[in-house]
Amino acid sequence: TDNPISFKDKVVIITGSGGGLGKQYALQYAQRGAKVVVNDLGGTLGGSGSSNKAADLVVSEIESKGGIAVANYDNIVTNPTGILQTAINSFGRVDILINNAGILKDASFAKMTQKQFEDVLDVHLNGAFKLTQLCWPIFQKQKFGRVVMTASPAGLYGNFGQANYSAAKLGLVGLCETLAKEGVKYNIKVNAIAPLAKSRMTETILPPDVLNKLLPEKIAPLVLYLTSDIVDSSGSIYEVAAGLFAQIRWERSGGLYLNPNKSFTPEAILNKLKDISSFDPSTTEYPTQLNDYNFVYSKTSMLPENSQGSIKIKSLKDK
Ligand code: NAI
Fold it and tell me: Is the ipTM of this complex over 0.95?
């Protein structure tokens, strides 16, 4: 397109944008005219300590290039309201929320403490929940909102030593999928990214020559696109790293369809394992909503005579 994507007059909150990926988002939003709330409590990778320095440095860098930004040092877990307040007090509105703040507390599952599990869920999942819910009525009222959830390949696929982190990250995908559906009639679009990039999170787990290709500024363009006025997608998941931009979706195998009026045995399952696990492209499905169960109903002959080929699964929206 010839029309550059602009964020003029848009206010964007980016949690954890004092460094890493978030900092690159902040710089690129500001460069395209957004007013940026740079939130960061300035702690360690493990979530301890705090300092104003991280957020302040990013704000100075933006201002030195002629951009508009304000720092906020609130912990998303204990004071999400403070983060929104900074946006409202400084700029009078909020249009875009990037849920990016995160910590790591890796441990093999046998050794993981409840605190390690809960602390990671608190920052990534509960933090994103709270701040998104605070912004939601504003988005509804102005009939515009853009949200990005930061998932992770570790959430999509699992990763040794990251039970807490992967649970939180796939939790964010589920949150994204539901909020996308609830946001439809208010022009609120919610998408998730699963990035891989050089930051203090990955510094110790990848070789330097690989890391130097995985620059965090390579992630930002997708985030900006996903929060632009013109974006179509909502409820989508994107894997993004170095030069890779790809979408991830659910795929149901061709499957085994038995007559639900009969009883089944474990042996019947065992005997048909090939069907259950067959991802032959001519038979797979890509469900995106509960109503996609109509495919299953028809295959198992469960559709009643008068159903005209489908049954509507009701949600709160219909009640
Ligand atoms: P990072 O550690 O540089 O950035 C995270 C930022 O969040 C830090 O500046 C930190 O101070 C801030 N933060 C942590 N807890 C906070 C809290 N309670 N309140 C406010 N701010 C808080 O790491 P990176 O890599 O930039 O991570 C950004 C996001 O991307 C995270 O959600 C991470 O899980 C995710 N991610 C990163 C990947 C990578 O390859 N770097 C891979 C997959 C996901």
Answer: yes
